[in-house]
């Protein structure tokens, strides 16, 4: 039996409404990546993580728990679990992330901050006051909960006089650049992905990488936000030869990740399909992603057959070392 | 026998962005769907336009399985806002069925 759709969405929406995130994450865990980077709190321009990279280890842990529940008698208890979760943070117990995975995803955020510093961008960070963007709740169509949450996110930016927001992933970019303006009257934030900022700043490589990678574009960057050239420009300038899989660029194939919260098995099947395309394009080269959802979903499906990396790892090697 | 709810399309359509009627039923969306959702969007949107609420609700899993990846939209010759239309249906089901 599949996971009960209404109760699963209900738990996620309750968490956003009550705890301001789809899966509860402590402020300490969410901000750990920024330790020692000397990023000021607040500023006219801020790096907004939207907590996606920090949440992935929790989502992965939850997905594993869900896979065990899907098609078992335990699905019958999800309705009860939703009622309990309103009072006691049950999803917090279910989603205990691995430490090494947290470190790996935090490193991506460190990479991005270092790249922006290298490009001469002055930016702040909202630390424990930063909130999740609500991307998953938007996808699931719980618009009333999302609208109230978006207002809270916007109010925090306004409290610190933020005018420009630099995002780190496609889903958060889409939320702040294309969705929030429809939800909030007078919305006036300028939003760019860090990839766009780096290209605009004309960042110069310090080392040539001389390697090949297969490019896996995010469907949100490609088809919602038209971020297609930046990742190619940055890699090509660093001496990286890009190999395109069968479905690429504007017609990139989704990694299946958006199905993960309700249909983990379907998500895995779609990811496997994409992994096969990547392998055909050149498995030996390895592949780059630029979205935490693509990264985790493809990595799980790749089973070590393809080396996957977040694009920020390569960019840091080329532009910061 | 199908029960027709003549107000169904108006209940689903909260803004002009819901443009299911632009669909000309060519089938490109189904052909390119990475999830292989044959039903989405053409049959499903037609059910909405015809007021066949029961038929739509019987396909809840399909509606929530859509990845919203817009592969269909990128190939749609009629510029149907497929992903947003699907989100409209989710909003409707969340409210009406799941009471969210």
Automatic annotation (TrEMBL), chain A:
Residues 213-299 form the Cysteine-rich domain. One of its GO terms (cellular component) is plasma membrane. InterPro entries: Cys_rich_dom, HdrC_iron-sulfur_subunit. It comes from the Bacteria. It holds the Pfam family CCG. One of its GO terms (molecular function) is oxidoreductase activity. This is Fe-S oxidoreductase. It comes from Desulfoscipio geothermicus DSM 3669. The lineage of its organism: Bacteria, Bacillati, Bacillota, Clostridia, Eubacteriales.
UniProtKB/TrEMBL annotation, chain B:
The keyword Iron-sulfur applies. Keywords: Iron, Iron-sulfur, Metal-binding. The keyword Iron-sulfur applies. It comes from the Bacteria. Residues 14-43 form the 4Fe-4S ferredoxin-type domain. SUPFAM superfamilies: alpha-helical ferredoxin. InterPro entries: 4Fe4S_Fe-S-bd (IPR017896), 4Fe4S_Fe_S_CS (IPR017900), HdrC_iron-sulfur_subunit (IPR051460), Helical_ferredxn (IPR009051). It holds the Pfam family Fer4_8. This is Heterodisulfide reductase subunit C. It comes from Desulfoscipio geothermicus DSM 3669. The lineage of its organism: Bacteria, Bacillati, Bacillota, Clostridia, Eubacteriales.
């Amino acid at each position: 039996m599949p996971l009960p759709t209404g109760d699963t969405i209900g738990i996620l929406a309750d968490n956003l409404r009550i705890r301001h995130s789809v899966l509860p994450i402590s402020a300490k865990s969410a901000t750990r990546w920024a330790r020692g980077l000397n990023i000021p709190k607040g500023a006219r321009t801020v790096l907004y993580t939207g907590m996606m990279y920090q949440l992935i280890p929790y989502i992965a842990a939850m997905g594993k728990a869900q896979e065990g529940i899907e098609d078992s008698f335990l699905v019958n208890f999800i309705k009860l679990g939703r009622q309990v979760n309103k009072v006691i943070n049950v999803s917090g117990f279910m989603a205990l992330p691995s430490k090494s995975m947290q470190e790996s995803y935090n490193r991506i955020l460190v990479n991005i901050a270092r790249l922006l510093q290298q490009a001469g961008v002055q930016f702040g960070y909202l630390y424990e006051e930063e909130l999740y963007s609500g991307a998953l709740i938007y996808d699931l169509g719980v618009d009333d909960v999302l609208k109230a949450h978006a207002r809270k996110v916007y109010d925090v930016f306004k409290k610190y006089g933020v005018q420009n927001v630099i995002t780190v992933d496609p889903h958060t970019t889409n939320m702040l650049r294309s969705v929030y303006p429809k939800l909030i009257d007078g919305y006036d934030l300028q939003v760019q992905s860090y990839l766009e900022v780096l290209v605009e700043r004309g960042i110069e490589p310090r080392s040539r990488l001389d390697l090949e990678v297969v490019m896996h574009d995010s469907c949100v960057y490609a088809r919602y936000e038209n971020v297609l050239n930046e990742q190619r420009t940055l890699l090509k300038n660093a001496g990286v030869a890009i190999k395109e899989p069968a479905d690429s660029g504007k017609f990139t194939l989704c990694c299946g990740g958006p199905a993960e919260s309700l249909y983990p098995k379907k998500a895995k099947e779609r990811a496997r399909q994409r992994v096969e395309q990547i392998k055909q394009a050149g498995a030996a080269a390895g592949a780059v992603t630029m979205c935490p959802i693509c990264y985790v979903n493809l990595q799980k499906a790749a089973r070590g057959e393809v080396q996957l990396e977040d694009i920020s790892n390569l960019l840091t090697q080329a532009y910061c070392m | 026998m199908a029960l027709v709810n003549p107000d169904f399309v108006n209940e689903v359509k909260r803004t002009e962005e819901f443009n299911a009627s632009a669909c000309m039923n060519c089938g490109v969306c189904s052909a390119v769907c990475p999830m292989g959702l044959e039903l989405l969007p053409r049959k499903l949107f037609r059910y909405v336009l015809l007021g066949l609420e029961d038929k739509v609700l019987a396909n809840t899993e399909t509606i929530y399985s859509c990845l919203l990846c817009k592969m269909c939209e990128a190939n749609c010759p009629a510029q149907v806002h497929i992903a947003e239309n699907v989100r409209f249906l989710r909003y409707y089901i969340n409210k009406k069925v799941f009471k969210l």
